[in-house]
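Hi! If you just cloned this repository, the fastest way to understand the data is to look at a raw example. We've pasted two of them here, unedited. The first protein comes first, obviously.
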Amino acid sequence: MTPGLEVEAEAKRFEADPDALTVYVVRSGWGDTRHLVAVSVDDSRPIETVPQSMVRMRLQAGVHRLVFDFEQDHGAIEFTGVLGQVRFIRLAGDFWVWGGSFGWSREDEAITKRRARRTRLVGDLRIL
């Protein structure tokens, strides 16, 4: 179920939670126009993302594995964080007449945070 507008407004303040590592997975880009892409962390239940969307994940400190699945396209990235930290990770998609793909972007987190402000919250996960 998609989080409500109140949860989205709270999430978009991008405030740190002293009891969690907060990660925003941001899916935003001009070449990403229509596909559903499942995203999960540490083998959790996948959350389907859409273009111009984000997922907030509040996790334990430590090393985590973030995975996306789209048709035959799969990708994983590991990241580390501490309690009270806020991270931004971008899922980028590019589609052309001859095909398309997704991948984890190494974009500066400040840029990804700006992108997040223009997205819709489609998932709010808490695994502590």
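Ok, and the second one:
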Amino acid sequence: MSFKNSIIASVSLIMICTGRQESVPSLSVQFLPWNEGVTERMKYSTPKPDTLFSDEYYDVVRTCSGEFGGSAWFINRATGDSTGCQALCPRGVYKVDNVYYVIASLNHMGGSSRIMSIRNPRELRPFRRSKPVERKVEASDSTYKVRWYGGDESRSTEGADIILDDYNQTIVMDFVVDNNVYVVTRRPNFDRFNRFFKQSNNSEMYDCMDYILYHVTVSGLVFQDTLIQMNTLWGHLHLNEERSFHYKEGNHQQHYIDGYGVDYMIELRNDSLKVYRRNNNWELG
């Protein structure tokens, strides 16, 4: 994708999954050079809170055991009862038109992502503490009990409608603008990978990643724009994962991407999305 300096992208929305086409807004996206907004303020990450959402009825709490599972728990504020659903590692919960949207993602192996809509949290499975497993001490008559890591995570999506359930794709940003839910996903582009591999006479491999903006509806995801098409030396994105970060405070978010010779930052501020780019004199054509 050729870089678009200081222009606002006017994009048409294309439905990418089955379901009735709905009237959806167009979120303005501005593409800018690095020095037009990026400052030294973006130097730390923000940990995800355990309580992702609260309204007059529920507190929604996340638990995450990595590759061993994660859950979104709806704690009824009146009764204290908890119901929940299997949700990888939840990163955001939003309520639009009386529908709860659970956004979840896991950076394990190739990465995975899940988005669910929940109309009635009471229809989710209730929380149940896992039973301990009895183990025998080797060369002894003694026994002991253990609970497996992740054993208390939900294993059910009953009561939730699956909007997205995808492997090899992660969600790096999620937010609400004008009462509409959006996500930015990161996924490999194998067409570009194959093209560059052939251009190198099958001798060089590259990480070819796309960062894509979607509008989330109960009917499915609606493509809005391709924010970044990144091509870097193979393995660089994984080796430098700790150099990427995400900052979130209120309606201000920043997601920084170390792209070897080309760095990017996606920023949400004042309901406007901006993509900054810094070229460090290396880029695959």
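That's it. A detail worth noticing about the second one: The longest strand covers residues 220-233.
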